[in-house]
Specification:
Length: about 375
Amino acid sequence: MSAPFADAPPGLAGVRNAARAVTDPAVWDFVEGGSGAETTLAANRAALDGLALLPRVLTGRTGADPSGRLLGTDAAMPVAVAPMAYQSLLHPEGEQAVARAARAAGVPFVLSTLSSRPVEAVVATGADVWFQLYWLRERTRTDELVARAEDSGCRALMVTVDVPAMGRRWRDVRNGFSLPPHVRAANLEPGSDERAHRSTPGVSALADHTRSLFGVPTLRDLERLRRRTSLPLVVKGVLDARDARRAAECGADAVVVSNHGGRQFDGAPPSIAQLPSVAEAVAGLCAVLLDSGIRTGTDVLRALALGASGVLIGRPVLWGLAAHGEEGVAEVLCVLRDEVREALLLTGCADLADAAELRVRRWAADA
């Protein structure tokens, strides 16, 4: 496979540049934007950049293995593709292209409830698909989504719990952002996404749509879901260690420490800042994953050193999809895996278990 970003700047910055050059400005704002003043969006990256890893030396290491296991299945690196809505906005093949690239890279792909491709078609790519569940107002519709995920062959269920309402994303409001006719919510009832297609100046049609569609899950709902499904259950959108503990006690197999990529409550702390307390609270009860702001292999090691067993990567995957479709996503995941391997080697780690023993120092405000 030729490298589509061979002439771009190093790392994923070049992918971002290539994607922005070919993406409609309103769609780009939808992908890149956060809520409010985008304070939390910026803080995610700043917090990661403010963490230094102490390399080990005198180990004699000449190679490193980034492979491991996520939710009991093999993964080529401790990374899964995060759930992201309406990927056909960026490329005609949308989620199916991303799933094929994830399969080739040996990592799980998390399919959003608001996917523009039906779950059955995405699972048919052969990828290790986890289904992300938004809690719907109508319980029967939620149950139907769970059944579809199970029947189609999804290998895990990830319920997102941090969207009682969509955060106010001013870029979408200013753009009056709505879905074009060819992009549909493929996993929902036909016509149920009508609001998402209504273009109104000064209104985010997607926020209007989710406001009419989403419910607010409770602990009782989570307990019921745990009884309802035999799939591994992941709870995404946890920042407070007390909530993580409650989710684990309800039977969650993993929690995702996440502020929704800075797209929900603007003023929430960076996800990486909350990771140690969550990992401590659920130690021995469930696994911990991290998302929001992951961009490099060093970020992956930062998360492992602070208690995560893996991370979810979001926007960079969409950059690759926008720029070069499946091949672009494959290149993003290839770059990330190479960076994880190199970061392991340069910190004296042979594998992910060694990475979990690395020590972290803050070198920013409190250096």
